[in-house]
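Technical note accompanying the year-one report. For the benefit of new consortium partners, we illustrate the data format agreed upon in the data management plan: each record pairs a sequence with a structure-token string. No post-processing was applied to the example shown here.
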Amino acid sequence: MAKPTRPAFDPLDVAESNFTTYPEAFRADNSRRWNRRLGEHAGLKNFGVNLTRLVPGAQSSARHAHASQDEFIWVVSGEVVLETDEGAQTLQAGMCAGFPAGSGNAHRFVNRSPSDALLLVVGDKTTPEEITYPDIDLHGRTNAEGRLVFSRKDGTPY
């Protein structure tokens, strides 16, 4: 779909994709998460906005924490379980969560309900960025071009 010629658009007109840049070993876990990249569609440069649909059993991502980027999530519809370092918390439509840069609080959202859930995910694009994944052998760091590059925790590339 072409970029809108006016600032307003219907989010449902933005194509949905389950593409992930995760290494092959971790892609299947995110194959049931669908994003509409609203910020990209609007031409935003400083922060991202995604409308993320989690089908039953899906996760938003592997549990992770950002060193430099803030992240904010609003549950638009449905119900999800937020998993953080503090444990699990059920969030329903209308609830939100925020993760300040550098907090170290690893998080992910899992849909354990029988229906789809929609999340509005907003995050800034500060670089350099480093992302830790405490539950799997994965580490992310932005390169000189600002693209996220993954390695194992010992630094060896995927």
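Partners are asked to follow this layout when depositing records. Residues 115 and 138 are 30 Å apart (CA to CA).
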